[in-house]
Amino acid sequence: MGDKTRILAIGGGKGGVGKSYISASLAIALAQLGKQTVIVDMDLGGANLHTLFGLKTTSRGIGDFIYTPTSPNLIDYVVDPGIPHLKLISGNGFIPGIANMEYFRKVRVVKALSQIEADYVVLDLGAGTSFNVIDFFTITQSGIIVTMHEPTAILNGYEFLKNVVFRMYSREFKDKPAITALIDRFKTAGETFAGGTLEALFKAVGEKDPAAEQQMRALHAHFHPAFIVNMCRADSRDFTRNLEEICRTYLSLKILSMGSVPHDPDVQRACLNMRPFMLDCPNSKAASAIRALAMECVKGPWMDAAQALHMDEYKTPDPLASISEKQAAAPAGASDAGGAKRTDAELNSLLMNFITESSALTAAKLPAPAPSATAPSRGHSVIEDLVGMDQQVGVGLELVLAESGPVIRIPVSPRLRPNVDQPFFMPLNESGGGGLLKRLFGGGPAGSAVAAEFEHLRSSSHMKEVGEDLNLLASKAGRTPAESREWIKTGLEFVTAHRMPLARKCFDMARQCAPDDEIALNNYAAGLMSMGALGQARDVLDNGLVQHRQSACLRFNLGLAHLAQKQYKEAASCFVRVRSMALGNATFPADFLEGYCLYMQKNFTGAETMFRSIVSKDSGDAYVQFNWALAAIQVGQVESAVPSLSLIINDSPGDSEATAARAVALWRADNKTQSLVDLGKAIILDPANIAFLTAHAAMAYQVGRLDVAIADLQRVTRLVPKNETFQRLFSSIRSELNQPH
Fold first, then answer.
1. SS3 for 82?
2. Fewest CB atoms within 10 A around its CB: which of 213, 364, 421, 595?
3. Mean of pLDDT over the chain
4. Model pTM score
5. What is the DSSP string of 142-160?
6. Is the separation of the CB atoms in 227 and 157 below 8 Å?
């Protein structure tokens, strides 16, 4: 760290107070003052700071430094957000590393932060009060808390500071059990312990150990936190005085109010548009307030404390650090004579038992994880919301590591294009009409346009009133084919406005007016499907197909209804019939859905043939490429799968599933080194995925990297803390590691 580098750790206990917005805006303001500034996304459990700079994804970041380092210098992982004097180190993915990061990795991060050469290093910390959040907050003596002008926020800010203080105590007095016992009693007793103030605790500690009391008072004397009140809608001076008084009375802390930032609706708009607020709205009151905060950072004597780093706490080794840190960056398969590659039969047995148990849990209980925010979407529909069309672990990729070892199942399944499983509403190939809508609105003034009146209907506040009018109109309306057309037009307007209950009512009336009308039948069934009434929709479609056997629309929607209920054989049969009608795939993507259904039936050969046929016509569809690659892996054509997956990963570096799938393909191609690297990258992108961690541990075990396997299994144990089998096995592994060999 340079002689004048200042670290601004920005945190707070409550989520939603705008920590990332304040961090990003403050960093920009400092850069605009000509200060060389580096901002680091330390919210590793929900990294999204890069989006505030207009970046949808980043090619590298702190996750790479933590888990797959290619350089020992954190500054080598910066990306350019396009703002002079400012560099960004992103979190590059959703990584709950702060909650689960091994001790030796945290030490590396702290040391790396201390070595960044810049005027200012801004740390955007995550919400909450986990130990790692607090530890990063206190690497200097002057962290910044962001709060809001409301009771819950002030309470959370106070509780955050309280947790910080007690974390400092636990580190300072870890070798004095009598003092830590007294501190623990104070924490649980609260106000019943001599009023609950820290001054009372100081005196109680002093009675036992006067030197310890002086240590505690010295900690407080050198700790100078500050706070910023964000999204102010009124004068915040009384609020800040109250917070200062509470902290002084109960925590014996003198905290500094840096200032407040007024509420500004343009902030939300800038966030939604993924634009830096300070650049989009430089003349706003909020931007002016941010610039004033930046000046506080530049001129305030309080900021001198931001240069004093606390490094002593990170000198105590973790129980597993001796094995893990030694080979953290070593190539797969490498080990030294006294390193982590061990052959002890008992340890090997324990490791394999753990891997087997974890694999069984994944196969039996765990649903496939949701895709990373930076990965392409699987597609989405109302049907998925209502019936839970989750991907099945049973058709995931299997990793057979050894003849006697377990089969590791990785829940990566084929993807549906966005909206490809939406029910199809048939349009009317005619113009004119609109009389029904005019009747619905009582006619309106002479010459008024139906479209203008319909805008009234789009407001949710009028839905009940409109629904009542619709029911009244339905009770008085005629039952003629002409009326059926008007009901269909009205229903399609409701579909456009996303008012499915009203749309379904209109299509039902159309069906009553013309019971044999194909459009009325199809759209009524589609409305039912959109509302989750799949069984009723299937009955309507089956009856409709008796009269309209060649209706591609009815057949296609019937296939979608079967698909939503995971009746893949029946769905595939419908899509085969639709495909045989030689209709355009843009309207009815029956071949794509047929391939999907074949895969889900485990007919991998048929699925591979179907997707390969589609790729030959349209090689640019990432969803088809992904599904073809999975099917190719399943049938053993890994030489075809790897290039396709590589293209997808190049276009979407945050796609954890494609990265994991390529790891499986590479393993089957006997490229074990690169396979282990790829699965490590998938874990960075989706670190809570137990299947990925288990597979990575098993791979590492197979190539002799027991240090990596043990670290993976330790993370699995933390992710499933209530699993007694995991806890018992890992305790045995720890005990075995502590025995002399």
1. coil
2. 364
3. 76
4. 0.50
5. --EEEEESSHHHHHHHHHH
6. yes
Whether 315 shows a pLDDT value over 70: the answer reads no
Instruction: Tell me the C-alpha distance between 599 and 611, whole Å.
Output: 10
Cβ(220)–Cβ(248) below 8 Å: no
Number of alpha carbons in the 13 Å side-chain half-sphere of residue 517? 25
- 669-714 pLDDT tens trace: 888 888 888 998 888 888 888 888 888 888 887 777 777 777 777 7
Torsion sign over Cα 342, 343, 347, 349:
positive
pLDDT at residue 124 is higher than 70: yes
Query: Do β-strands 6-11 and 144-148 pair in parallel, antiparallel, or remain unpaired?
Result: parallel
Sequence letter at residue 321 = A
| Structure tokens belonging to residue 240 | 């800040």
Which residues 6+ apart lie within 8 Å of 475 measured at CB? none
Euclidean distance between CA atoms 303 and 247, whole angstroms: 20
Token couple for 711: 């670290």
Q: Copy the structure tokens of residue 49.
A: 């700071």
Cα distance between residue 17 and residue 228, in whole Å: 10
Q: List the end-to-end C-alpha distance of the chain, in Å, as a whole number.
A: 41
Both tokens assigned to 433: 């009409």
Beta strand ranges found along 63-171 (DSSP E): 86-89, 120-125, 144-148
Nearest-angstrom CA–CA distance, 344 and 348: 6
Q: Where are the alpha helices (DSSP H) in 497-589?
A: 500-513, 518-530, 534-547, 552-564, 568-580
What domains, with CATH codes, occur in the chain?
Answer: 6-315 (3.40.50.300), 347-419+619-738 (1.25.40.10), 435-587 (1.25.40.10)
Strand partners, 122: 8, 39
Tokens, residue 366: 């765990």
Q: Please report, for residues 4, 6, 621, 738, the alpha-carbon distance to residue 627 in angstroms, rounded to integers and kept in the order given.
A: 53, 49, 10, 46
d(CA 194, CA 157): 23
Q: Encode pLDDT of 615-649 as tens digits.
A: 888 777 889 999 999 999 999 899 889 999 999 99
